[in-house]
Amino acid sequence: MANERACEPMIAIRGLHKSFGDHRVLTGVDLSVAEGSTTVILGGSGSGKTVLMKHIIGLLRPDLGEVWIEGENIAALDGRALDEVRRKFGMVFQASALFDSMTVFENVAFPLREHTRASEEQIARVVHEKLDVVGLREVDGKYPAELSGGMRKRVGLARAIALEPKIVLYDEPTTGLDPITTDYVDEMILEAKKKLGVTSVVISHDVGSAMHIADRIAFLHEGQICAEGPPAELRSSGHPAVTRFLSTWLEKGRA
Ligand SMILES: Nc1ncnc2c1ncn2[C@@H]1O[C@H](COP(=O)(O)OP(=O)(O)O)[C@@H](O)[C@H]1O
Ligand SMILES: [Mg+2]
Prior knowledge:
By secondary structure, this protein is α/β, with parallel strands linked by helices. It has one domain (35-61, 91-251): Rossmann fold. It is built from 10 helices and 10 strands. It has helices spanning 2-7, 49-56, 79-86, 104-115, 120-133, 149-160, 179-196, 207-213, 231-234, 240-251, and strands spanning 11-20, 23-33, 38-42, 64-69, 72-73, 89-92, 167-171, 199-204, 216-221, 224-229. The strands form 2 sheets. Strands 6-7-8-3-9-10 form a 6-stranded mixed sheet, sandwiched between helices. The N and C termini lie far apart (45 Å). The structure holds adenosine-5'-diphosphate and magnesium ion. The site of magnesium ion has 4 residues, from helix 2.
């Protein structure tokens, strides 16, 4: 029995369908994410990546299908039970979404103040621990505007892990960043996995970044995962949409 449990994926999506009016966005998504692994969901803009992510965290409900988180079908939950499941997640947003009027310290402390009764002393300890994870302990007194884009992303991660989630979701973490900052953010994702052992799901249309950080890449196209596997296998998937996506990236000289 213990073995069965150990083999259960952290996230399992089965036959997920979602339309908005007559716009069919997801038409049968199947995807499993193993505990402690990093999966990158790759796809063109407007392909439904963010919609898929919102189902994983229970912000959207499937028209049809199931979303299992640690063996629990969250599509069937609401209210408190769904809140409980959401506590398993940390989110890192595209625009790091920090509060500009708060210091780095207060940004990272925010979820602790909102969701726990930790003392000031405990809060300070956790905030510094999380800032250590992202290598930014020394900036705790600064304001977001005083930091580089890459550092703001790292503070966003420190805040996302403040409540020690099992799963970290990143929505387009490198979109719009220059190549050096992209590397810096990629390293952050790799370090978070190594230091925290979290399960990571990264939504991206950045092939180079996906190849670098992913254990597995899932390619979303026309509402379904049309190819899935380790980065090296994606190149030989033979699916025309994947081939096109990769060759466009190669032409840009990013190889
Ligand atoms: N709440 C919504 N209502 C209507 N349409 C939506 C909604 N959310 C997303 N969409 C549509 O779903 C499609 C996929 O969106 P999205 O998941 O944001 O794409 P991306 O892959 O770029 O993240 C888009 O055409 C978008 O307009
Ligand atoms: Mg998106």
